[in-house]
Amino acid sequence: MSDRRDSAGGYKPISDYGVIGDMHSAALVGLDGSIDWYCAPRFDSPSVFAALLDSQKGGRFQLSPTGNFTTKQSYEGETNILATTFDSKEGRIKLTDFMPCFMEKGELKGFQEIHRVVDCQDGNPGLRITFQPRFNYARGKTIILETREGCVAKNQRHHLSLASSLKLLVSDKDLLVNDFRLSKGQRLVFVLKWGNSSPTPAGKYETSRKLSKTLSYWKRWVSHVKYQGPYRAQVVRSCLVLKLLQYAPTGAMVAAVTTSLPESIGALRNWDYRYSWIRDNALSVWALSEAGATREALDYTRWMINVRRHSKEKLQIMMGIGGEREIPELTLDHLEGYRRSSPVRIGNAAYRQIQLDIYGILADSMYYLHRALGWTTKQVYENLVKYSADQAAAEWEKSDSGIWEMRQARPFVESKMWCYVALDRAIKIARELGYDDDWHRWDPVKKKIKTEILSNGWSNKKKAFTMVLGGD
After folding, report:
1. What's the CATH number for 14-204?
2. Which of these, 190, 202, 356, 430, could form a disulfide with 165 (CB 3.0-4.6 Å)?
3. Predicted structure pTM score
4. How do the domains of the chain map onto residue ranges?
5. Which DSSP state fits 321?
6. How crowded is the C-beta side of 294, counted as CA atoms within 13 Å?
7. Contact predicate 256/339, CB 8 Å
């Protein structure tokens, strides 16, 4: 595939990006070897590189040949390690990008590092490094300082270091551009590390060892995916992406690693999806469990139980990946947006919305775990199953924002249906576990919801269910 830039202000198509991550954060790497999106130390932290949202101001970290080249990109087998190969008249370069992650002493080890390995496979090509961090969504001034082993970048409380196996020369306070000439068989290593520390010699970061252990970690994880049907390669890749979206310290999953990518170019529906929606999480861990990877569902369930046990307030439709309840929404007017599709938003005001479907989706996923894994403890039942049914029974008649997150609440039929599901699944679990008082209390409400949907949520004219009660 040829290297290309979109004509709209230097933006690449979204399909020209691969993703790497360590289940704490993630980075998008373009076909041109440019990291155009990276937030640290968490998925929802302020950006370090954000050329994805402003090609001029956002900042990037690019490694690519000098002159013209063609490029192709793929993952190293069934892993989340990304390989980009550049071909030019001068030779061939392979770039390997990964974020180290593997188990040590029973826990996932996090390093807050990005390793970039450059291997010259043929010829004597030129290599250009462009290092342009722009902390905090390109707010404030980022300063780059040269060190013996690389460089450091600072912006108020934000710091990171870049270690290099070759000497880096900083000629500008906020931009590093260096050219090198490679020889066949030569390897260069660059290590980006978040945090307030100076770079040590590149060899001290043990890139080869971490690469080997990270490869092994992903291969071992994929071995749990038992699916053997059609399109297995695509199913496995989808599972790897879903796993990458999980925030390891809690088990919560982000809906996306990015913010403000428009639903259509030039439109206004640009939202920040770096948070944990109950709906998205439940369906994602359900999909992983169906494929054979069940640990993620258990981790997410434990996190939801902890959220419920430590808060007397109702579950929100979405939370921060650390359990944060308030996610204030701001507009960053200084960034032009992907392909000039403004506004750029951080935070998401939808956290205030009522979406009644979450009770049914949560109860349905717990019912799946109950049937497939037999994993329904007293804590699961009381904090999630019973809670979902009680809330559905109390709130089903309310209007809500629905799955579409409408700013004006309406009596959506789909939301009523999910309240019915919440009660249906909870009743089945309660019957099996002997919680007779609970299911006797829920059963009349379940029947009432069904009657309401069939009476006022069905269009005889269209022979279909309506969007809202009484609609057509």
Report:
1. 2.70.98.50
2. 202
3. 0.94
4. 14-204, 227-465
5. T
6. 12
7. no
